[in-house]
Design brief:
It is a single chain. The chain is an alpha+beta fold. Helix content is 37%, strand content 11%. The protein contains five helices and four strands, in the order αααβαβββα.
């Protein structure tokens, strides 16, 4: 079993990196598509639906549930809600390995983005994702970008 103090087997590491490279174009396409969904706070449901479909397509056991603010508002880490959560949906995808060995891993992230501000200050519409040379236009916060990175790595590891 690999632990924090035991390095990943070099052959396995090379195999995962090769899978990341192999799936790169598909992951870029998914990233560009996901960014086109205006996932502002309270409007995340369409982006969550895309995420749900993509995980399900890859064979993950899927679940989704609405966020009930009344159930969580007394939690010590709760942050006051200033927008409607009527369309707030959590998506959970579970990968069941062929053989259960080792530990479990939970990856958790958010999909909402910060308000776009005045659209006339944008050179392009804020949810117009595109690739220009080697640069991406992805109007999303770093946490959302991180989620896409670990999703790509997870997809590669599972392939």
């Amino acid at each position: 079993m690999t632990t924090a103090s035991t390095p990943l087997d070099p052959a396995l590491q090379a195999q995962i990196l090769a899978e990341v490279d192999r799936g790169f174009s598909e992951q870029i396409a998914l990233t560009l598509e996901l960014v086109r969904y205006p996932s502002l706070r309270g409007q995340e449901h369409t982006a969550q639906e895309l995420y749900y479909r993509e995980l399900a397509r890859r064979g993950y056991a899927m679940d989704r549930f609405k966020i009930d603010v009344k159930e969580i508002e007394h939690h010590p880490g709760f942050s006051p809600v200033k927008v409607s959560y009527d369309n707030a949906v959590n998506v959970v995808g579970t990968h069941h390995p062929r053989q259960a060995t080792g530990r479990s891993l939970i990856l958790n992230g958010h999909i909402d983005v910060v308000p776009t501000g005045p659209h006339d200050l944008w050179s392009r519409p804020p949810f117009d994702s595109y690739v220009e040379g080697a640069a991406f236009s992805v109007p999303t916060p770093p946490a959302s970008s991180g989620r896409r990175v670990w999703t790509s790595a997870l997809f590669a590891a599972v392939r």
